What we know:
There is one protein chain. The protein is built from 14 helices and no strands. It has helices at 13-43, 52-60, 64-85, 90-119, 133-150, 156-182, 192-199, 214-230, 234-238, 240-263, 281-304, 313-319, 321-332, 346-380. The longest helix is centred in the C-terminal third of the chain and has 35 residues, at 346-380. It starts with 12 loop residues before the first helix and ends in a 12-residue tail after the last helix.
Amino acid sequence: MADQIQVASPGGASAKAGRLAYIDWLRGLACVGMFQAHCYNSWLNADARKSEFYRYSQALATLPAPFFILLAGVSSAMVTQRLREKGIARDAIAGTTILRGAEIFAFGLLFRGQEYLLGYPKSPWTDLLRVDVLNVLGLSIMLMGVVCWLTASDTVERSNKRATYWSLAIAAVVAIVTPWLWTTYRPRWLPWPLESYVNGVHIYAQPQPWLFPIFPWVAFGFVGLSLGFLLFSDFAKHKEAWFFAATGGVGVIAAFLSMVFDAAPIRFYSAAIYDYWHTSPNFFLMRCGVLLSLVALVYAWCRWGWAQRGFSPVIQLGNTSLLVYWVHIEFVYGRFSILPKGKCGILKATGGLLIIFVAMVALSVLRTRWKKQRAKVLRARPAPAAATAESG
């Protein structure tokens, strides 16, 4: 959900536009998936929620949040690579990444405060401490900054390899221990606001799957971090199309293995704690497989398809994903919801979804134009006159 990051592309100037376009297209696609998930979840009535349509809608709803976190990992790798190539010290690189993560985490706290004030007096004060996607996104980026600092070596190539291996290992460990931290080995001794960052328990007796705790969500960020560093490998630089084909192939294999492991007679976890759709590593593997496959497909669409012909509303949304996330929530779930919550049929809710989509694209365009105009004004300002011996 972080804004677009301008970085040097491994493939040179000609590849730069395409590479940034496919990243923004992916981020914009996640925005569209987020809109549909939130709109149908907020507005559909009880009968519509029993339909196959809603079931498929909520299945798609499992992808936007991990997509945002994974893409934040890719962007973190790109920023780290750019700074390493400039010879910046590892402490400064880590500071840049950690500061950006802290900024997004602070945005998450600010967002919760805004929602509390807009919902007052109905909103409980405990909502101020709810772990939302911006919180875990910020924490993920900070943790990735720490890992990049720890894995820094004497050469850029060696640093990238170490970060790639460590990121995959951390993602695997986080996914594996998640079922236990949600059940058998819950850190009940922590105050609930802190335990909520571990397993999303919040104020309830059991962890809540609709919240965004560190386990398992940060694992998606580390998968993205490893993917981001692999983009700078010799293979990706010289055979970019084949690299993305391989990425898609790995995604298909991961999805297949998820189903195989889930159906296997031998279980790593007891039946009492195994929950495929919420905490299992198998579902994490499935989502990673789908996301990696989408990365390959979107890359192909941006390189050989029509993704960049004329104005692309999806790329536009990807440029301002944090803004449209922040704004659309209030018009879907909040006091200013454009449709009555829980009282709409599928057709009416779909109409509301189209309104939200168009409105968010328009808002994104205005934001982009304002930034360009502001940058133009700043460039037009005369440089301050140099001090002379006679001045003063």
